[in-house]
Amino acid sequence: MKVCVVGTGYVGLTTGVSLAFLGHEVTCVDLDQAKVDMLRGGKCPIYEPGMEELLAEAEPNLTFTTSYEEAIPGADVVFVAVQTPSAADGSPDLRYLRSAAESVAQSLNHDFTVVVNKSTVPIGSGNWVDAILRDSFATREDRPEGVEFAVASNPEFLREGNAISDTLYPDRIVIGSDNPRSLEVLNHLYRPIINQTFTPPTFLPRPEDATAVPLVSTDLASAELIKYAANAFLALKISYANEIGQLAAKVGADITEVARGMGLDQRIGSRFLQPGVGWGGSCFGKDTKALIATAAEYNLEMPIVRAAREVNTRQRAIAVERLQDELRILKGRKIGLLGLAFKPNTDDLRDSPALDIANSLIARGARVKLHDPVASERFRVEQPELAPYLSTTIDDVFTDCDAVVLVTMWSQYLELDWSKFVGLMRTPILLDGRHVLDADRMRRLGYRYVAVSG
Question: Among 31, 112, 321, 331, which residue carries the largest CB count within 10 Å?
Fold first, then answer.
């Protein structure tokens, strides 16, 4: 099939490259000429494991351009994957989506094109985009005859750092439209993934337990709500584990054991029960805020979702409080943070807990040293006020430090020779912000081990 993808961020790029790898003819359009030039050269503008390898394998079926006029004509499917950042009131800012929809409409010329909302959008956006498309199409002086189009929703469930695997071997595929023909087109588009009949990438073999992928084919509004409901539930699960973690600290329980005991219940599951400094990134914060804003439009409260957000914000403050409990005075103290990206295997800094923790420590007079094995370059560009605190080596973070905080679970940190660094510190306080280090081992090595919950 002929496919166009509008936007080459995490979602758009992963979608476009994956569909091209499967054999579809894909054109990705982005207005950023520098990004397009980079992609044409086989380089990935984001850090995503395996993306450049998949770019190379998909290259025969893949084109990058800044021109809607080049990308849209003849397309069977147009994915719109532009950013929808949070507005001041918590609702998604849809100006980029509007602009993209208007531009798409100006170049539609196929007998039937499915325009797919791939961006995370509020419930009802499908109808809104459909109206924009039709209004913009009607303004065309060169409006061709026989052109039909319809809007569908195809929410993504990608984990940054695992985006390719989540696309090719997903838990499920959700498609929503009020037009039956659109559902048929998307069913056909995804059939190789649904049936798992494609030859896997050389670097990412099919999991041994992979089976046919469930397809949820539903109406527009339901597909849109599925995305918000799923992300809000995962955010809630993490916040619940953190709230229980605070109680565990008070009563003398081990939150990692409590989480393990909960997770073995098949009705609950072990994933997203990891206690620590909380979630970040582009999805959970934005989507929970948008869900609350959407409910407010219908005079509904979302107290559970709101509480999940409050707990998550509090975890970052608790990390600073733990340091103050140990050091008594933060002014003048040197404190190192290991990890700046919101999670490992990505350079994404959006809503990263490390940023709040660093800023809070600086506001209290502490001297911070920051390190990340991958995200430092992006950090210098996106966080210029904090960039002077960056360290190029892990040794520099530990040297003469009063405390070190493990913020991001990079494998590079988990595999450190921790015995090497304890002697470099002024006071060997180690705050485990993710509850992933062996507390007894760290204490034997000479660290004063502290966890966020405990």
Answer: 31
Q: Which of 253, 275, 307 is the last residue of a domain?
A: 307
Q: Where are the alpha helices (DSSP H) in 341-393?
A: 353-363, 376-382
Q: What is the pLDDT of residues 290-326, one digit of tens each?
A: 899 889 999 999 999 999 999 999 999 999 999 999 9
Residue list for the binding site for substrate: 157-160, 227, 272-276, 280, 343
- Spatial CB neighbours of 113, under 8 Å, sequence gap ≥ 6: 75, 76, 77, 78, 147, 148, 149
Residue 293: which CATH number? 1.10.1040.10
Token pair recorded at residue 166: 């989540």
**Residue 146: strand, helix, or coil:** coil
Q: Is the domain of 185 the same as that of 43?
A: yes
What is the gyration radius of the CA atoms in the chain, in angstroms? 24
Among 218, 246, 280, residue at a domain's last position: 218
Please report, in range form, the residues annotated as the binding site: 30, 35, 84, 120, 157-160, 227, 272-276, 280, 286, 343, 350
Tell whether 407 and 326 lie within a shared domain: yes
Q: Residue type for 221, please?
A: A
At 380 the three-state DSSP class reads helix
Candidate list 4, 44, 283, 401, residue with the active-site label: 283
Residues 58 and 214: their CA atoms lie apart, in Å, by 25
pLDDT tens readout for residues 194-245: 999 999 999 999 999 889 999 999 999 999 999 999 999 999 999 999 999 9
Q: Is 283 a catalytic residue?
A: yes
What percent of the residues of the chain are helix, what percent strand, and what percent coil, each to the nearest 5? 45, 15, 40
Least confident interval from 10-14, 293-297, 325-329: 293-297
Give the pLDDT band (50/70/90) at residue 86. confident
The model's confidence at residue 419, banded by pLDDT at 50, 70 and 90, is very high
Counting the structural domains of the chain, the total is: 3
Q: Give pLDDT, residue 454.
A: 66
Largest Cα span, the chain: 77
The length of the chain, given as a count of residues:
454
